[in-house]
Every structure is written in structure tokens, then in C-alpha cells.
Amino acid sequence: MSAKEYFQRDAERDAFYRTFYQICRRFNVTWSTATPEVRAFIEEATRVTYEQEKAKPSIRERLEDAKRECTERKSSEKGHPGRGTPEHGDL
Q: CB–CB of 20/46 below 8 Å?
């Protein structure tokens, strides 16, 4: 492994370790002094939490879905008379 490869950032690896450290903090565990049973628990909790987070749609994906839905809704409302905003004199 070259120095460049060693210092290159991997977003997925960073996300996994961020989850790992959050789980350790949540359960007040110091990895270096943890028993094998506690380590196994932390490993499993990290794996499950990481997979759940990874399965969630990203904010960018959710924004794209919302934009698409809004566009579809606007185009479907164009063909319905009387569904627009009221004019000033109609109030």
C-alpha cells in the first residue's frame, strides 16, 4: 500500500467508523478495555445501524423525489379549472 492510498479518504469507510464511534459513545464503551462479549455486541450494533443508515435514501435523493412530485402535481392541476389561487375580487 502506497502512502497515497493510505491517506486517501473513503466515504463509506468513514461512515462506518463514524457509526462505530457513535455506538461506542452511546453505550459508554472503551474498545481497548471492552470484554469479548461487549465487543461482539458493539460490532453487531454497528453493523445493523450502519446497514439501516445506508438503506435510507440520502437527502439529495429525497429532494429529487420531492421536486419530481411537485412538478407532477403542478402539471396535473393545469387541466382543472377553478383550482388556482383566487383573484383579489373573488375573496
A: yes
